[in-house]
Specification:
eight-stranded mixed sheet, elongated, alpha/beta, Rossmann fold, Udp-n-acetylmuramoylalanyl-d-glutamate--2,6- Diaminopimelate Ligase, Chain: A, domain 1, 291 residues, 8 helices, 2 domains, 27% helix, five-stranded mixed sheet, 31% strand
Length: 291
């Protein structure tokens, strides 16, 4: 099962988190993208309580907790911390009281505060976890954005994938990943491709070595990630093989359970592969629009 450690949330600047208690529990695992607001639990109703999720204390939960009498608050906190949580988050920069912090420290439960509103925090948090916990794989190829279509160029080593991508970049399109494409499946229907931070915005060209696409062509020539819409398989032209000439038969490839259209593109001297890929991208867009 995919997971991230709760402590990794502190590296997500969009969440604007500050740790207030429970440092000992930062190695706890987050396995669900769902969150829970424990309003009913604080009122004493724990049936079907989702304690395996991050608990979000918005203004309502915080006000109920802080305005309870001393004895009631102690009882609520004691009962609440009978469960084990991945972590607790107080939004709107609300800071939990001393009793709550002490109980969190005693149980090793991470408690964070965020300056975001409850709604904004949940939106950012859910989006981040969707990417982090999505099924993933790595594939050898080049991912490039051509006219807004994410094109995954594949083929044998030395077929010219990087050189083709370089020509496309020079023509105004945007590189996402070269050599190794990291792919994540989001919502079981969409594939998102990216590259590792180590080789981000770089490209390997035989005879030239490694170049920095961002430095040479500017920030308009790169993207950090892109949806994958179409797979282009490059192969050496085989005179004995019958290639598609009418475009009536669609081929698909399965990646992480998602079927993507695939085009087999034979390569030989004299064929302008970048223009063919641009044409394939525009044709894909027109078909997607219903033309």
């Amino acid at each position: 099962m995919s997971y991230i450690e709760v402590g990794d949330l502190l590296n997500q600047s969009d969440l604007e988190l500050t740790l207030k208690a429970g440092e000992a529990g930062l190695d706890r695992h987050l396995t669900s993208i769902d969150v829970n607001r424990p309003g009913l639990a604080l009122a004493g109703f724990y049936k079907n309580f989702a304690s395996d999720r991050i608990q979000i204390f918005g203004r309502g939960e915080f006000a109920y907790l802080m305005e309870s009498g001393s004895e009631d608050q102690s009882r609520i906190i004691a009962e609440f911390f009978r469960y084990r949580y991945p972590g607790l988050v107080f939004t709107h920069s609300n800071i939990p009281g001393e009793r709550f912090v002490a109980a969190a420290e005693e149980t090793g439960t991470p408690v964070f505060t965020s300056s975001l509103s409850t709604h904004n925090f949940i939106v950012h948090f859910t989006h981040m976890l969707e990417m982090a916990l999505a099924p993933s794989t790595s594939m050898h190829g080049v991912l490039i954005d051509v006219f807004g279509v994410g094109m995954l160029l594949m083929g044998a080593s030395g077929i010219g994938k990087s050189e083709t991508a370089l020509e496309l970049v020079e023509r105004g399109h945007r590189l996402v990943a070269d050599d190794i494409v990291q792919i994540r499946c989001v919502d079981e229907t969409e594939l998102i491709g990216m590259t590792s931070e180590l080789i981000q915005h770089h490209m390997e060209l035989r005879g030239l070595g490694i170049i920095n696409v961002k430095d040479l062509f500017g920030v308009g020539a790169i993207r950090d990630r892109s949806r994958i819409d179409l797979v282009m398989l490059l192969e050496d032209w085989d005179e004995n093989k019958e290639y598609e000439r009418l475009g009536l038969e669609d081929e698909f490839v399965d990646i992480l359970g998602v079927k993507l259209p695939r085009i087999l593109l034979p390569v030989r001297p004299g064929r302008n592969v970048p223009i063919l890929i641009e044409t394939a991208a525009m044709n894909h867009r027109s078909r997607r629009m219903g033309f």
